[in-house]
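ok here's the first one, seq then struct tokens
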Amino acid sequence: MRCELAREALSAQLDGELNPLEEEGLAAHTKGCASCRGYARDLHAVHRSVRVRAAAPVPDLTRSIMAAAAPHLPAPRQHAAAPIRHRSWARYGLLAVGLTQLALALPELVVHTHADHSASLTRELGAFGVALAIGLLVVAWQPQRASGLLPTTFALSAAVTVTAVADVALGHSGPTGQATHFLELVGLVLLWHLARSTRPTRPSSSGRSPLAA
């Protein structure tokens, strides 16, 4: 291998372009050629100094970027604590409704006879009441779960209200006999209020993005 070809091969070697056969030929040539060995050392030194060097200093543009983006950022919320205060009374109300519902439903789980309908049906209704009461108590403790319980409570309250109105209209029961269902409606309203107040706020899409051209 001539020195001119060897030096071209040295450059290609730095870029990883040599195949194994060319590597062997270059190694054999540089082993017996002092000039090409010196050239290889110099070439490696230049290559290293170019690739390994300190990064160029970059000016801190944080303030100028934030100043330019400020008109496009959403306005800060001035009354962030208000929803928390509004949730407090709803949570206490839901706690009271849940405990009352639980106290009314628990005795129905252990009933053996009932004047109006079978004991089995009474226990099933009691189980539904206990389940709803526990759900309300869980939401009173963790109000962020209100949205998850809202559809079930709405369906249950709507069905109970329709049947209660039908029973009163047909004379199967008096208005006072359906008074306990009022608790479910109150619980539904409180759940709806908590679901609204704990809903995450979405950023307005009317303003332009600060990165828009």
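and now the second one, same deal
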Amino acid sequence: MNYDGLYQLVKQRRSVRSFKADPLPDEYITKIIDLARWSPSGFNLQPWEFIVIKDQKIKDSIVNIVLEGRNSNMAMEITRETWQGTKWKPLGNELEDFSTAPVFILMGGDKRTKDGLPMILRYDNRRGESTFNSGLASAFLYMHLAATTLGLGSQWVSQIGEPKTASLLGKLLGLPRYIELYDMMAVGYPSQKPRQKLLRKDRKMIYHDYCGEKDFRTNAEVRDFIRRIRTWTIAMHHRHASQ
């Protein structure tokens, strides 16, 4: 694949929030996970573990746990600063539209692998944790890119990383304590076409050689961008489109 092909793939990858109930071929799930196995990780420790969920009862239980956690999180929106603009509002069960996806893939990290890091990282909690999570993030992104090449839509269900949600899911799935849930991908055939993504201009984020404070955005510019991106993102959530 050349650069243009990769560029188009990355542009095509979107977080889909509306799925058809059509089942997926098992080979698609295998391909998604197989690609993730090739992602980079700190010291090549490959901390990832994948839990594929197709059983409807288990999926329903996962949806209920995620919904409970999100409702709690949304209560915190009353503490937001007014300049942030649009409030993140609950949509009832519509928020959980990922529930129609035929497959959930949860990614967990085996915390025991941290013991294999170089000693300078193993005994630096911040850098060791960052290295561990960076590997999981790389593999998770590879999964979404793989799904895109197969004509599938996918959604990041990051609520599963919240402590309460992760604890309840660990109990539901029988996970040992050393498996730390990182994120979950809902995957299936998209039922809607993604809308155009709102991006920052590249000239506003690229600097050459020395760059001082005057080269970066002002506080007012950052706040204006936050207001606009929050409004756009929340609107996309409400429309069951892509962010």
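notes on #2: The chain has a mean pLDDT of 89. The first helix runs from residue 3 to 12.
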